[in-house]
Amino acid sequence: MESTINIEDMTCGHCVESVTKALEGLPGVSEVTVLLEEKCAELSYDEAKVGLSELTKAVEDAGFTVS
Ligand SMILES: [Cu+2]
């Protein structure tokens, strides 16, 4: 499953790194690409292991807003 998550509040490379790590830390997530300019994260995930609500929560727990 490929998905794009829209993320607010990212301002610099550290934010990109935080979001990338948060998403990569979840089971079944691969190929995370966080785009600062576009304010989004593109990723692939295994629906059997993780869902959109968990992806959203991981980003929010890292301190960002999913829109
Ligand atoms: Cu930052």
Would you spell out the secondary-structure blueprint of this structure?
Layout: E1 2-8, H1 13-24, E2 29-35, E3 40-45, H2 52-61, E4 65-66
Residues 11-12, 14-15 line the site of copper (II) ion (CU).
Provide a quick synopsis of the model.
With 67 residues, this protein is of the alpha+beta class.
Largest sheet: 4 strands, antiparallel
- By secondary-structure content and strand pairing, the structural class works out as alpha+beta
Mean pLDDT: 98
Output the radius of gyration: 11 Å
Number of domains: 1
Task: Could you tell me the CATH topology label.
Answer: Alpha-Beta Plaits
Can you tell me the CATH architecture? 2-Layer Sandwich
General shape: globular
Distance between the termini: 20 Å
How many helices? The count is 2
Which residue ranges are poorly predicted, with pLDDT under 50 across at least 5 consecutive positions?
none
Task: Please write the string of helix (H) and strand (E) elements.
Answer: EHEEHE
Query: What's the CATH first level?
Result: Alpha Beta
What share of the residues does DSSP label as strand, in percent?
25-35%
Q: What is the helix content?
A: 25-40%
Which sequence of strands runs across the widest sheet?
A: 2-3-1-4
